[in-house]
Amino acid sequence: MAAADLDLLFIEDPSNMAWLTGYDGWSFYVHQGVLVFHDVDPIWWGRGQDANGAVRTCWMDDAHVAHYPDHFVQSRTCHPMEMLAAMIRDRGYGAKRIGLELENYYFSAKAFLVLQSELPDAILADATALVNWQRAVKSEEELVFMRKAARISEAIVDHIAARVEPGVKKSDIVAEIYGKAIRGLDEDWGDYPAIVPLLPSGSDAAAPHLTWDGRTFEKGAATFFEIAGCYRRYHAPFCRTVYLGTPPDEIRRAEGALVEGLEAGLDAARAGNMACDVARALAGPLEKAGIDRAARAGYPIGLSYPPDWGERTISIRFEDTTVLEPGMTFHFMPGLWMKDWGLEITESILITPDGPAECLCDRPRRLFVKE
Amino acid sequence: MAAADLDLLFIEDPSNMAWLTGYDGWSFYVHQGVLVFHDVDPIWWGRGQDANGAVRTCWMDDAHVAHYPDHFVQSRTCHPMEMLAAMIRDRGYGAKRIGLELENYYFSAKAFLVLQSELPDAILADATALVNWQRAVKSEEELVFMRKAARISEAIVDHIAARVEPGVKKSDIVAEIYGKAIRGLDEDWGDYPAIVPLLPSGSDAAAPHLTWDGRTFEKGAATFFEIAGCYRRYHAPFCRTVYLGTPPDEIRRAEGALVEGLEAGLDAARAGNMACDVARALAGPLEKAGIDRAARAGYPIGLSYPPDWGERTISIRFEDTTVLEPGMTFHFMPGLWMKDWGLEITESILITPDGPAECLCDRPRRLFVKE
């Protein structure tokens, strides 16, 4: 905040709210947020009924939980930001520099316009991803959570590999994926992942974000499974692809190039290298195989809420020159979405103090073929 | 659009996108939307890889699917709205009146500011909820989907009533709820609900939006279950409360008043009456029992994506004078979140041409007690 010359920071991103205060609840469908100060503890601010959740989950004392009346919720005549602006004025920040997450889910254009009109003397500055960047390097405690999430991811992928057969309904497999994800392992119960399981087959796998239906798996098609175990909101995304039958040469060649590219990328994912170095290492073997891959190949992961388990800071792509640091975690995600098939083999990785990236999950890095 | 004096409408709300075009995919974590014209078919616009999903799910021909390059995704140097603005200018709308959903998840403040700067000659008007309001009265086909969702909701609640016992882990019950929700019934596979299952117990039930953990259900506490079956993105939310042991008089009295209030509200939920009439009918018995309930008591439901299964138009509360029409559907949701307990008994309802509201689910309207 000091470096960004901000007197006050208002955070509406639920993952940033949780990281700053511990607040955890499915209440981000109404306006809420955290006010961050230089000199005193933050204030959680939200809907009256959710203040009950804040006093139960935040580390600040109850005097640092503020709320607005229910008739502001999804109203056509008033807006919760009127209440927030009044609180900001009352605390003496009405003519100060206030940072806002302008590019963020949940902080709407209208929220910005209301604050602008209610705080005419303030300077509203863009503080998009300011907190997200602080989250890039994970603490040891965070890594403990992510490793637990990775154990859940492995259990899900093991179950998929065992269970997917021609004639099995996709919706049944999704039900089982949720079962594994939420039962968790031993005492480590699972949380909801920030993205639902994705498992398109055959030519639908050209479209990476279609969700499931009740059709059955068929012989002669690849299905990729994009899933994440989630432990106390920390994610370890993990993707593997199952081919039922004998894969055509085209897919086998793509698998070979992709695995080679992944391994080159893991080797390049070292502290001191840049995000683009990983993207370039990956691209080499793919280009040699004639695969032109334009999409980014990964993003930081950790604490997240829907709709995305990425942290929206660094991207593993040619344009990104961010220097990698020990403790950073990424979903190294070079999905191939071709004209009439798709292939995903991915790793959740940790940048180590020296040496190549460490994979959080430990399962064969290949196409799973069931003849 | 004509009534709002709009030449062009840009829609970023995923449920409005789906309602207008059929598009269905978990891609709303990046900027995407639908351009709606007066004279030609709408254009789906989004990320390159998601255009593959659009051509598979939208009713328009493929020429009405447009996309932007991947390096615009979550970039620090460029914004997808630059591409959208260029398309709007190219089509001759650069100096026209353009409607935007200013109060909506996913349309960020930054998206608005970029459009404003890229379209200096356009008039950017607030079209928040313009499409949502068109969705208020459901078609017969939509009601078929909602009734299928209601069958799934009933199956989930039956399972909860049978399975919840002292010593059972909450995370296990959530896994089973997802199992029922997604397996669906017979050929009717289930879709993901827009809100995760909520099931706080005892004093935590004062906080309506806390999610689960791995603790066990205990004797001497009420747990409310807020769930929804979902069929092809149409929801039928349904809440019931389970008490393990003998409920204290306070909760029994609240149950009696709540059920009486619900029944009065159902009787008031008639075509021609107003939303506030339902809220007032509910409030009578509650006030008589000394329960002061400030929160709104319901909202329209139907097609939805996370983070909310409400439609964000009408609210069942004292301030809302919207006249009810046949075919409107609501979650009549008068949750009681008291200081150290919570009670939810709710109904998904349909406004009929004459007579009281029809409940989409058919299960006893009472506290479920397991001694």
TrEMBL record, chains A, B:
<dbReference type="InterPro" id="IPR000587">
    <property type="entry name" value="Creatinase_N"/>
</dbReference>
<feature type="domain" description="Creatinase N-terminal">
    <location>
        <begin position="1"/>
        <end position="137"/>
    </location>
</feature>
<dbReference type="InterPro" id="IPR036005">
    <property type="entry name" value="Creatinase/aminopeptidase-like"/>
</dbReference>
<dbReference type="InterPro" id="IPR000994">
    <property type="entry name" value="Pept_M24"/>
</dbReference>
<dbReference type="Pfam" id="PF01321">
    <property type="entry name" value="Creatinase_N"/>
</dbReference>
<dbReference type="InterPro" id="IPR029149">
    <property type="entry name" value="Creatin/AminoP/Spt16_N"/>
</dbReference>
<feature type="domain" description="Peptidase M24">
    <location>
        <begin position="146"/>
        <end position="352"/>
    </location>
</feature>
<protein>
    <submittedName>
        <fullName>M24 family metallopeptidase</fullName>
    </submittedName>
</protein>
<dbReference type="Pfam" id="PF00557">
    <property type="entry name" value="Peptidase_M24"/>
</dbReference>
<dbReference type="InterPro" id="IPR050659">
    <property type="entry name" value="Peptidase_M24B"/>
</dbReference>
